[in-house]
Here is the input.
Amino acid sequence: MSAQSLETPAKIDWDAIRRDFPILDQEVHGKPLAYLDNAASSQMPQQVIDRIVEYQTTFHSNIHRGVHALSQKATDAFEETRSLVRQFLNAREDAECIFTRGATEGINAVMHGYGRKFLKAGDEVVITHMEHHSNIVPWQMLRDEKGIVLKVVPMTDDGRLDLEAFQEAITDKTKFVSCIHVSNALGTINPIKEIAAMAHAVGAPILMDGCQAAPHLTLDVQDLDADFYVASAHKMCASTGVGIFYGKREMLEKMDPFLGGGDMILSVSFDETVYNVIPHKFEAGTPPIMPVIALGAAIKYLTAIGRDNIARREDELLAYAMEKLDTIDAFKLYGPRDTKTSVISFGIGDVHPHDIGTILDTAGVAVRAGHHCTQPLMKRLGIPATARASIAFYNNTDDIDALVGAINDVTEIFGA
Here is the structure.
């Protein structure tokens, strides 16, 4: 079934949509695959795979620099994706949408291009206890280099940001705020628009890490008033190797580029270089052409299904899962039960999450086990790691039942 044919919720055949994902039609250890590791990387529908094959077999070429037919066709497909990203984010213009090698590179581009240029010793940057390492380490690097003050907003016991503490952390010394939109470790949806208003009240720009929001929520960077927003294609049914980096035009134009090289210049001499206009100013060298074109196909696919429909489907599966899991005495949920996306971060008694993940794998259930690149968050919860099941719209109740059955196996094996 092609997602392009979908029009209303009543016409959505979720079983047919699942068949769009060929990787799901297999067995692992002799059991049907129940893929519940979507927060780490989502799967790719046949429509996106076909677009990749089409590019690789009919118009693979470098872009922007060639006058021949293949290069022009590749350039058109690449720039079409930029327009699709603009629509996906509701950005003002295509030029505000930049392609990086990943969301991590986007965050680093802001730290280097804005932070190193405009922040000085004593300036305060506010982040939270909920951040992914990719939104902690770059600011620590800037702290060590320039002497900025890094302030961390605390998290409540049930995995929410303390908004009163957030307000107290923002002062006239605050010069930048960087905050995760949706927690990858807990699924918590943060009130990012309210946080942006706090930052802007003192004139501080805000960067929003949207890696876990983009696959699940309808986004509007204008309504959120995001100065910068980053997301990952491989969590949006596309391929690895490309990230979305949005910035307001006025912010991007005054920033320095993170990388130097071809295509990000207007002219080069041994005396000086004149940088290109945005977005090309931030896209040095040959970009990830195939992954960007795949991202365009993925955005078309997700848009055809409808992002509200996707959110509703995932919420239904999450509710079904929690109803089943709550019957298991040893099951412990980490993070909130509401205002969250379809992430279930959990423990089973005193069983180590790696043991949980290993036993679930033997049942064909793929989950993540570890600290999820959020070691400070885990320390705040007083645990080394969690097991994490993350649901996508192409999952079904059979996947959830397999998860619950395998967790029951864990409790029997360990006497939890």
Q: What stands out?
A: The chain has two domains: 3-45+306-414, 50-303. The chain has 14 helices and 17 strands. Confidence is low (pLDDT under 50) at residues 1-9.
